[in-house]
Amino acid sequence: MFQMVYQYYSYFYDSPAYDVAIVYSNTLDAIRMRFHAQAIGMYNALSRLGLRTTFVTMSQVRAKTIGSVKVLALPRNERLSSGDVNFIMTQITSMGVHIYAECDLPGYTDKYVSKLSDFTTQMTSMGITVNQVSAFESPSYDYSTRIDRVAIQVTPST
């Protein structure tokens, strides 16, 4: 009985080593409802698989205070600040952290929906050929959203 109580206590009250960190950035403010729906769905699925999942801010990622996570998840993170994609690719992956970016065009625009100048270069360095990309998410009418997408060619570099 004591062992069971201790396991329960240590699971919820000791500072756990998280397996997955889901990133929230203030650049996502305009699409926060889509982000929340995507992130909570991801959180619930990962929790059911037995993975310890936490939420971190982009500031924590930049400061490298994300602990010993194995995966950094970026749901709906097409809006990032300039340099974030490069920082994640060079600094975070060098720590042995895997990146899972689940969105249409990760790092395509900033929080003001202005295209980031280094987007094409960053995608090319990851083996993704990006030509004539135009992402547009229209306002919702009658609870529906139209998304205009252009196909991109993905050629894994590793």
From TrEMBL:
This is Uncharacterized protein.
